[in-house]
Write a structure and sequence with these properties.
Blueprint: E1 2-7, H1 10-28, H2 34-51, H3 56-72, H4 82-100, H5 114-123, H6 135-141, H7 145-157, H8 160-175, E2 178-184, E3 188-192, E4 201-206, E5 213-218, E6 222-230, E7 236-238, E8 243-250
Antiparallel strand pairs: 1-4, 2-8, 3-6, 4-8, 5-6, 6-7
Helix pairs in contact: 1-2, 1-8, 2-7, 3-4, 3-8, 4-8
Length: about 250
């Protein structure tokens, strides 16, 4: 099944983008080719760009505290395992403390590294990191893979608390939803959302054998899914067939 996720607000959209970047960084750093490490650095700079938003760190910390408050409300419930609850609350506390212990924005310490910032200023220019532009960077790329991996790990470490916090918040959010089987009639599905409940994330799983691509839109009142099919051209065309998929709404 192919999983698609659709955020209902800007905060969750930012978290999903960060998670995407952290996953990419995690894939690239263990590799050994200099080109992989070039794109690992580019990804590190992308994370810094997203994390530079003034209120991101405070938003994450508020969400950690909110989740802790919600979970503590389950104490005394016979259907809840206290040991598991304590473990998750402990993880939230650890993430909050690690993030709170960092001065300034996430990744701010990297901005004090002039060598890294010289690469960052040119990496967005087509071909801007050639050896004649950045000989020091070119020399770094010629080092052995273990040295480059150690450097990348050291630079990425200051973003670890943010990565762990975002990962935990998204896991708790995803776990809050219950999957339901639905049917798109004539290639279209629409569902009114219940009043008084604020959903933050939609998750959609669809069988790849159907060769259909969902175009999702939504707000606090309803969600809509239009199934598309890629025909001979590069453009997606609306499908007019009935097709089932799995839908999860997370709050």
């Amino acid at each position: 099944m192919i999983l698609y996720e659709y955020p209902f607000n800007e905060r969750i959209r930012t978290y999903l983008r960060l998670e995407h970047l952290f996953r990419r960084l995690g894939e690239l750093v263990p590799r050994e080719h200099p080109l992989d490490h070039h794109y690992a650095l580019a990804t590190l700079f992308e994370v810094m760009d997203v994390a530079a938003r003034a209120d991101l760190k405070s938003d994450v910390m508020k969400d950690l505290e909110k989740q802790k408050s919600v979970l503590n409300g389950y104490r005394g419930n016979p259907a809840i395992a206290e040991g598991v609850l304590d473990e998750v609350v402990g993880q939230l506390d650890a993430c909050f403390a690690a993030l709170n212990g960092q001065p300034g924005k996430a990744g701010q310490s990297l901005t004090e590294n002039e060598w890294l910032m010289s690469i960052r200023s040119r990496i967005g220019i087509p071909g801007g990191t050639c050896e004649f532009d950045l000989p020091g960077y070119y020399a770094w790329q010629q080092l052995d893979a273990a040295t480059r991996q150690a450097d990348l790990g050291r630079w990425a470490r200051c973003l670890g608390p943010l990565a762990e916090s975002v990962h935990l918040l998204l896991k708790l959010l995803r776990d809050s939803g219950t999957a339901q089987k639905v049917m798109a009639v004539d290639g279209h599905f629409q569902q009114t959302l219940p009043q008084g409940r604020s959903f933050q994330l939609l998750r959609l799983r669809i069988d790849p054998a159907l060769q259909l691509v969902p175009e999702i839109s939504g707000n606090r009142l309803m969600v809509s899914v239009r199934l598309m099919r890629q025909e001979g051209s590069d453009r997606l065309q609306p499908s007019h067939e009935n097709a089932g998929f799995e839908l999860t709404l997370c709050s």
